[in-house]
Amino acid sequence: MTTEGLTYAAAGVDTEAGDKAVELMKDAVRRTHGPAVLGGVGGFAGLYDLSAFKEYRAPLLATSTDGVGTKVAIAQALDKHDTIGFDLVGMVIDDIVVVGAKPLFMTDYIATGKVVPERVADIVRGIAQACEVAGAALVGGETAEHPGLLAPDEYDVAGAVTGIVEADRVLGPDRVRAGDVLIAMASSGLHSNGYSLVRAVVKHAGWSLDRHVDDLGRTLGEELLEPTRVYASDILALLEHNETAAAGAAIHAFTHVTGGGLAANLARVLPTGLVATVDRSTWQAPPVFGLVRALGQVPTADLEGTLNLGVGMVAVVGPDGVDAVLARLAALGVPAWELGTVAELGADDAAANLVAGTKGVDGGAVRLVGDYRF
Q1: Facing residues of 112 across strands?
Q2: What percentage of residues in the chain have a pLDDT greater than 90?
Q3: Counting CB atoms within 10 angstroms of each CB, which of 2, 65, 172, 342 has the fewest?
Q4: In this model, does residue 76 exceed pLDDT 80?
Q5: What is each CA distance from 294 to 162, 260, 297, 310, 329, in whole angstroms?
């Protein structure tokens, strides 16, 4: 009896499908390339020419990496994969612009049980489109086929970005002062955090993703797959004249509201000895958050410690710069409002009422007051 040897294809890996996926996505990837990107799609390494940044006196490279989390389960359930790239770019690139860094280039990684070229191409096209919005080049990536580890229709995505910022222009806690004002920028919805809670709520309620929800004006699945708002170009536009602004009019810090919610992320950009007071009543939470709250009877503490509740980014601004920042954001089409203020931490401030020490950061604190409007 003769037997044939096992092949890579028999083991579940189709290299030809991977090549087809590259062919389908490469035009979208190339559209993110400017003259600083060297080489083309498919090289072992992406190359980026930094010679245009010779005018920097003390350039710092900024980097971040992240994924999309269990929101990919919604994309898989709906078989819609062309928007998840915005969630990836939002989670990765908007983490470096908060320090004032200009994003230069990004790479991505997709692991899947089976390479379906059209699906992979949809994912990467979404990443490329979001990179265009953020002003970054998508210079490389990897698609890995993991049969036996992931089911054929399962996948996960991750990415990393590199940016650049002048050392003396880095934003953060050391610039924040008592008297600064918090300006909130609206999220587009859930963004890409807290989906383990959201999916558990939906399962508990027994709702299907194709259920039309009047309060949302669309199906539940469409709402849950709403792409993350990418703030990078808006943030950089706000910072164009930051170094020439008067001391009381400059932007001192930003915080990206992701996992952990508003208070936990805001505390990360405050120095020790200062407390930010956030007024929950200053905005109307989008309907999806009230829906999650009601369907799962989720306690307020869990909601605000998990979801963004309608605030995706916060600027910490000198009091003389508030009107200008709000006007600029309105011109950019980003809904924004005054969220609260920063003050010195008082001796009578009860620690039990403050959020501090999150993500291992020994910094300032946040006090939440008022009631949410769901």
Answers
A1: 145, 155
A2: 79
A3: 2
A4: yes
A5: 40, 20, 5, 16, 32
Residue 84 tokens read as: 């998840």
Same domain, yes or no: 197 and 93: no
**How far is it, in rounded angstroms, from Cα 368 to Cα 343?**
13
Cα angle 83-162-156, degrees, rounded to a multiple of 5: 35
339-374 residue pLDDT tens: 999 999 887 776 678 998 777 788 899 999 999 999
pLDDT of 158-169, one tens digit each? 999 999 999 999
Q: Which range of residues forms the domain containing residue 271?
A: 173-369
pTM above 0.90, yes or no: yes
Residues 277 and 189 in one domain: yes
| Rounded Cα gap, residues 173 and 268, in angstroms | 8
Closest CA to 341 of 173, 182, 175: 182
CATH code at position 211 = 3.90.650.10
Q: CB neighbours of 13 closer than 8 A, spacing ≥ 6?
A: 145, 147
- Assess if residue 295 is contained within a domain: yes
Using alpha carbons, list the distances in angstroms from residue 288 to 77, 187, 213, 340. 19, 12, 10, 24
Do 276 and 334 belong to one domain? yes
Contacts of 10 (CB under 8 A, 6+ apart): none
**Contact in structure between 338 and 329 (CB atoms under 8 Å):** no
| 314 occurs within a structural domain | yes
- Start-end of H helices in 166-280: 195-205, 220-224, 232-238, 261-267
Give 279's strand partners: 369
115 burial (CB, 10 Å; 0-12 / 13-18 / 19+) is buried
17 and 127: one domain? yes
∠ CA 109-115-119 to the nearest 5 degrees? 80
In a domain, 365, yes or no: yes
Sign of dihedral through CA atoms 253, 342, 182, 303?
positive
